[in-house]
Amino acid sequence: MLIKTLFDQAQLAEAAYAKFSNITDEDEIKNNLITLGFSKKQTDKFTEHWEVISHQPNLYSGFSATLFKNKHSGELVFANRGTETTFPELVSDVIVFGVRSLICDYISAKIIFKFYDKD
Amino acid sequence: MIGLLFILLFWLYLVISKTIVDATVEWAEQNEKNTFLWGSLSAFVMFNVLFWDLIPVYGVHGYKCATEGGLKVYKTIDEWNIENPGVAETLDPDPNLSQQAYFIKYKSSKRFFLLPDGTELVAFYDNNGKKYRTTSMKGGDGTWGYWLNQRFARDVVDSQVWDIVHKRTERIIDTLTREVQAEEIEFYTSMKNPIVHPAKQWRDYKVWLQIGECDHDGNKENWLVNSVSFSGLSKKYKYFNGEK
What we know:
A: alpha+beta, 3 strands, 15% strand, B: 9 strands
């Protein structure tokens, strides 16, 4: 695997942790990434190549994911957020973790793709 | 995966803590001391070994969000339009079309400009420079933000409140009169993901201290004015004459 691909995937995995409050406003997307820990330069570079197509904010089950699109190649990347690490979420993830959350996550993942229908 | 690792570590910590508390209670029993008091005391100590800063950080963050956090609109777009007739129609977010922004250079999909007051602008475009996207702004005094158009800017100021709790103030400013149109105050902690941002001290591994923002969903009335968020408002100022 190319180092560039690994770098892109690592950045997308990290960006999936952002809370995109308004995906139609690029200034806001940049702010959300900076809050997450991206540097300003990194944010500029990232948004130069990737746009946010759809974002599912936190659900009760602790699920959140973002659909990114490469502006140059049109490639779509579905990035699942991992465990949220704020204290209440960490506790809730431990408690809710189980079959029910897995089912919820599967349904939510299907919903997020509805926002981007190629046909 | 980091979540699973932390769950494992939490269990380990819980087992060790329970063993120590049990041993303390047993010792108190053998020495005819108050077992409840000694048990509670050892549990309190064990909790604070790892979580001493949990309650203060969440407390300060929650208090600041409740008392200062939120969106304030000082002047509506309609009020501004009445005070500045005919100006809105001339506003465009692309600095390339602005007479006040002096073009310096271009680099791939970026164009660099300079404003008369020394503020640097970097405009970003898509489709080989055909579609305008956004403009970052950097003032000579270290301020930063986004250039919305010839009359408005969205500036961002970060400051430390206490320990790792930080305040972010975003304002929409009329750059001609320096009047603040709207302001949003947000609080967050500077704790980052230790896997992505290498930890410099052991405290950086306390991922549970990460707080990205105040609770917007639970206090919508604080964060929305006429059902519009700060971001939505900023977009309205940016695209006064509609998005191209």
